[in-house]
Amino acid sequence: MRRSLDNAGFDLFATDPEPVGSHTILSEDAFHKMIASERKRTERSHKPFLVMLLDLGEERLTNGSTGTLGKILDVLALSTRETDAVGWYKDGLVVGVTFTELDVQERRNILNTMLTRVSNCLQDSLSFEQFSQVSISFHWFPEEWGHGVPQRPGNPVFYPDLRTPGNRKSISGRIKRVMDIVGSVLALIVFSPLFLAIVVAIKLNSKGPAIFRQQRLGQFGKSFTFLKFRSMYVNNDLSIHEEFMKRVIHGQYEGKDGNGKKAVYKMKDDPRITKVGHFLRHTSLDELPQFINVLKGDMSLVGPRPPLAYECQQYDLWHRRRVLEAKPGITGLWQVNGRSRVRFDDIVRLDLHYVRTCSLWLDIQILLQTPRAVFFGHDAF
Q: Is residue 158 part of a domain?
């Protein structure tokens, strides 16, 4: 098994596997890296893999082959293949196993077979009290293999690397949050007279509230109330936008940019948009209430745009990372690099590039370039 782990592209054994009796178990850090590696492989190949988690609850594990952990590892050795990796998902509490190269035609039988085999072996090896504390769960990646269309863009089980950022990212995250608070407060103060003027204009132009509220997905797929100045008539047909975004995401709605290359464009002559709404969208003034979202912590000044739930359901596997790896923002790399003049895949690549290279200086650069993109660019969709 060491050979297959070494081929994952990093040294999983920087921390040696923990010996337990005659068995070894990967450390929490190494097992998390294994899951992240398999997840990224599946994003490219679309070949599913399975993670089994054994949560021991109050039955804390003891060392030695005669302890609970030793007995569980004995069971796993009998129930799994040599190529299946066993490690700590949560140190001392949850043991995990990754299963790869599975027969996709037999996925419905795999869970039943594995659950029956592991449960029966555990019952034979553990006391009734020990067995009653153990809970077993199975998680497919991609999630569609196990539960149909996922309600969120990603099962947290497969993203432990994103939930436990390093010290450097933690510090930069605090600095970014301070900048978000200061920036949003200043923006709300500076633009407060404009807020009043826009509210009056919207009210005079059409019936309905001045502020449009919508449920969007933030980081890790957490839903939040997204704020904008209303630019459309009330009670309009939402299916128009849903169908449009479906085509955009799948690359079926494309025009040509100034260089003759394929590019995504905003819907033209949308009958749902009011006269004032056209102006607000062209100048991006409809986005001003999102500074309240930033102040509340739902969004950041800079980051990927927050999607609607039905948009995420159309995402390819690798698209989901734009939602999972960063807090959504008011502006970002793709807004200052052509806005609606790039394909959706290019938008996601720019978002992921931002996540990889994120820094205070990069945020400042994007913020400084945003006004130019707003006044001299094209509408965002």
A: yes
More confident residue, 336 or 61: 336
- Are 230 and 203 a contacting pair, CB within 8 Å? no
Same domain, 172 and 89: no
CA distance 222 to 142: 19
Q: What angle do CA 305, 309, 310 make, to 5 degrees?
A: 110
In eight-state DSSP terms, residue 142 is S
For the four alpha carbons of 205, 206, 207 and 210, in that order, the dihedral sign comes to: negative
Enter the pTM of the model: 0.78
Question: How far apart are alpha carbons 257 and 341 in whole angstroms?
Answer: 6
Please tell me the distance from the alpha carbon of residue 339 to that of residue 369, in angstroms, as a whole number: 12
β-pairing, 300-302 vs 262-263, is unpaired
The CATH number for 78's domain is 3.30.70
| pLDDT given at position 9 | 36
Do the beta carbons of residue 133 and residue 303 sit within 8 Å?
Answer: no
Place of tokens 């949050």: 177
The helix/strand/coil state of 353 is: helix
Assess if residue 297 is contained within a domain: yes
The beta-strand segments (E) located in the chain are 18-20, 23-25, 49-55, 85-90, 94-99, 135-141, 211-217, 223-229, 255-256, 262-263, 300-302, 329-331
Most confident of 22-26, 148-152, 183-187: 183-187
Residues 105, 214: one domain? no
CA-CA-CA-CA torsion sign (291, 297, 298, 303): positive
Give the residue carrying structure tokens 């707003």.
374
Cα 196 from Cα 348, distance rounded (Å): 35
Helix/strand/coil for 83:
coil
**Pairing mode of beta strands 135-141, 223-229:** unpaired
Q: Which two tokens stand for residue 86?
A: 């066993």
Residue 357 lies in a domain: yes
> Structure tokens of 2?
């060491």
CA neighbor of 220 nearest in space, from 170, 174, 154, 164: 154
CA distance 76 to 78: 5
**Cα angle 64-65-69, degrees, rounded to a multiple of 5:** 80
Which residues form the domain of 258? 165-376
Question: Mean of the pLDDT values across residues 276-284?
Answer: 92
